[in-house]
Design a protein that fits this description.
The protein has 259 residues and is an alpha+beta fold. The chain has helices at residues 3-12, 15-25, 108-114, 216-229; strands at residues 74-76, 89-95, 98-105, 125-130, 142-145, 154-157, 174-176, 179-181, 185-189, 196-199. Helix 1 (3-12) runs antiparallel to helix 2. The termini are far apart.
């Protein structure tokens, strides 16, 4: 389907409805109609909930393993509407095989209109992040998992597995793999690597610098102090009297005898 035709579809309806229409009208090599790309037609990953490892699975390209590398790291301070102002939704922007932006907005559908014409099925597409039981802005969508999000995040669309009902839905908290980012933090997504929590004002990176070792500086300083307080081995303690004076000469010793 041409870009012009897809523009006309998206301009007047939701992403799900537009892509459903596009799929119905497309040729055999355009089947699927999944905005967050091919590979989700089979239902996405797992159950969409928190896995034992959280986020991407160990075999999905983590450090030291062959597989796709992280190319984009992006942060989100919301994983559902409860993290936004009243009446707003948490919207994620998918394009070219990854999510590139997250924000709270009055309408994710309206953001889609502002994004312009998608380039085929690669987006950009704006979808609202959600929790199990949430009502999606688009009535044709459901809260489902995504291959392109950590397993603890879900979005409203028509492919994927149901969002996990075991994850809490607390304002100001973002489920970020095995961690939960709290107030003043954001979840840094870096698919296919594990997500991590960072200060809200920090820059998300594919390979963030390792935090300093705890107690390293203190240990070094303690070692210096201990060395300074220890008695010197080069100066043995005096064998004299308690005040350090020379020992008294014994009377009648050979040292003081005269001929």
């Amino acid at each position: 389907m041409s870009t012009l035709t897809l523009r006309s579809l998206v301009g007047g309806m939701s992403v799900v409805a537009a892509l459903a229409s596009a799929s119905a009208c497309s040729s055999d090599d355009e089947k699927g109609g999944s905005p967050d790309a091919s590979g989700e037609a089979s239902g996405g990953r797992g159950s969409g909930g928190r896995s034992g490892s959280g986020g991407a699975s160990p075999g999905s390209g983590g450090a030291g393993e062959a597989g796709p590398a992280c190319t984009v790291a992006v942060g989100t301070t919301c994983d559902g509407a409860e993290d936004c102002a009243s009446g707003q939704r948490c919207c994620g922007k998918y394009e070219d095989g990854t999510y590139t932006e997250f924000q709270c907005a009055d309408s994710c559908v309206a953001l889609q209109g502002d994004a312009g014409a998608p380039t085929g099925m690669q987006g950009p597409f704006w979808l609202d992040l959600c929790h199990a039981g949430d009502a999606c802005e688009d009535p044709a969508a459901q809260c489902l998992s995504s291959t392109y999000l950590p397993s603890t995040l879900s979005r409203c669309f028509n492919t994927g597995s149901p969002a996990s009902a075991t994850l809490s839905k607390v304002a100001g908290e973002v489920h970020c793999g095995d961690a939960v980012c709290g107030s003043g933090q954001k979840c840094c997504l870096r698919q296919p690597l594990e997500p991590y929590c960072a200060p809200a004002g920090a820059t998300c990176e594919c390979e963030p610098p390792a935090p300093p070792a705890e107690g390293g500086t203190d240990a070094a300083e303690s070692g210096t102090d201990a060395a300074g307080d220890a008695p010197s081995e080069a100066t043995p303690p005096s064998e004299g009297g308690p005040d350090g004076s020379a020992p008294p000469v014994e009377a009648g010793s050979d040292a003081t005898a005269t001929d």
